[in-house]
Design a protein that fits this description.
The chain is mainly alpha-helical. The chain contains 6 helices and 2 strands, in the order ααβααβαα. The two termini are 13 Å apart.
Amino acid sequence: MYKITAEDEKKLVKLGPYQQAILRLLAEVPQGKVTTYGDLANELSRRDSKWKPSARAVGTTMRNNPCGPYIPCHRVIKSDGELGNFRGGAPGAVKEKAKMLKDEGVEVVKGKINLRVYRYKFTS
């Protein structure tokens, strides 16, 4: 779990309430684990029913994360275990995402992650 700093707070306050909530939730995902766009959307909705689950909105939030890599958008993947996008689809970005995850102990095989092993289970 990443503890959001005062510097992060200065950046987060410039975002909308949904984006702030998603990034705060993402900060709970520790090294060596991943979550999916859908898992984040569903967990936020479970914690606060005013938010409707939207994996697409989570993806947009990840694309605009001003606190990366500390609030770890590289730990968010597709529901089928594929890595998904990174850094707005910049050339070489998905390879960079795979390396970051491997460096944290997540096994990436042929561009996919075994969610049965590496999926983070939200607890609160």
